[in-house]
């Protein structure tokens, strides 16, 4: 039967605490010694018991030398990292460099295999080929799914823009209809004024012609204007509203001229 798991909490019994402290301290010193010997590391271990008693261990170098090196390394926080790197053994760098080269080569081979290069595939076994095929199929499925998402998003965006354009066109159409309606209303008002003026002139032109033969030419011109106004009144529905305005002004000018002469 194995040992039960010890719960990590403070031991309340002082005797049990002291016994556990002694056992764990011995084990800790043993591990520190092994680390110093096996890895040629400089290890400094400082322990104070609950009663304040000091226990220490130094491996590789003396305690004072290790503490001095620690103080020098941590004296300036900005220089702590460069000093640490300078203190590293070149063997550590060489081991890390070898590992990085191996990892880089592995990634390159994996990339060539995924690209389907024949030279890279020839070295694979059947199991590796099956595994690679599954990875490729999984990648293709992810790609297709992403494509469908993008297509759906583009379709939604196109529909939204089309609806906005339709609403804008409808708004512009209504504005144009309002402008046309206002223009026709203005045209009708001008026609009524022109008709009223022509009627007034028609009622009085015989009297004016009998009283003063000197203005016969002017009366003929006003009569021609009246006829043209009548003609444009019947043609206003064919788009002659702008011409009506001009003829109406001619009628008013003629009437004012007659009033001045008389």
Automatic annotation (TrEMBL):
The lineage's top-level taxon is: Eukaryota
Annotated ranges, domain K-box? 90-182
List the Gene Ontology MF annotations in alphabetical order.
Answer: DNA-binding transcription factor activity; protein dimerization activity; RNA polymerase II transcription regulatory region sequence-specific DNA binding
What keywords are assigned to this protein?
Coiled coil, DNA-binding, Nucleus, Transcription, Transcription regulation
* Locations listed in the record: Nucleus
Name the SUPFAM superfamilies for this protein: SRF-like
Q: Where is the MADS-box domain?
A: 1-61
SMART domains associated with the record: MADS
Entry coiled-coil feature ranges: 144-182
- Where is it found, in Gene Ontology cellular component terms? nucleus
Asked if the Swiss-Prot or TrEMBL record annotates the protein with the keyword Transferase, the reply is no
| Biological processes, Gene Ontology terms | positive regulation of transcription by RNA polymerase II
Q: List the protein's name.
A: Uncharacterized protein
Per the UniProt record, the source organism is Adiantum capillus-veneris (Maidenhair fern)
